[in-house]
Amino acid sequence: MQTGEAWIASAMMVSMAGLSLAMATIHGKADQSPATIRMTAMQRWHAVLWTLGQTVIFWSVFLWVLPMGIVELERFCGVNGFEHGFQLPASIGLFAAASCLGLWSGVTMATHGNGTPLPTATAPRLVIAGPYRFVRNPMAVAGIVQGLAVGWYLGSYAVLVYSLAGAVLWHIAVRPVEESDLNSRFGDAYNEYQRRVKLWIPTVGQNAIQMMNPVERECR
């Protein structure tokens, strides 16, 4: 990483280290199913600190180390990037806006849900506050936009594709599992939330206003 010539190897090693860490820090009861989703109630300050720690790790890995590995691979393969006049300020501004949304979402999950966005330490309460009033998974939206902003900043077509591929993977593989878990834990409350708030496109108007003071239900 110091020489700027080992990002591919760094990306591979960090990814494997992250997988090992995820498996070693699973929370919750051993008999909960699926094994990758564990509900655990935390004190608010503990949940906030845990969420911020997750944020640092995830942003470092998925928004810098892996994209830099992709850029190095592009250069190795002789693929040229792109540049234009307002590229740096525009991409930095987009990244900052998406990062604010991501932080707002994570802190809201921690303070209102008494848990973290990470499935292995998920919140025991259904959160319909903050950005969750307008879109069902604002953290996914924020992460995808952040990835696109990084690809724009680096001038890398492959990083842009990587970000969009992450969105497709989340939608096809992760979303159904999360929604099934939420439906099993919160039932009608989550079904009503699904009906009122869209997954990707922000909900505005009367539906969003009605979601401002929800009756939060706790899974026991």
From TrEMBL:
GO cellular component: endomembrane system
Record keywords, A-Z: Membrane, Transmembrane, Transmembrane helix
Superkingdom of the source species: Bacteria
UniProt subcellular location: Endomembrane system
Record's bilayer topology term: Multi-pass membrane protein
InterPro entries with a match to the protein in the record: Phopholipid_MeTrfase
Main location: membrane
Segments crossing the lipid bilayer: 6-26, 47-66, 86-104, 160-177
Record has Transmembrane as a keyword: yes
Record protein name field: Isoprenylcysteine carboxyl methyltransferase (ICMT) family protein
Pfam families (UniProt xref): PEMT
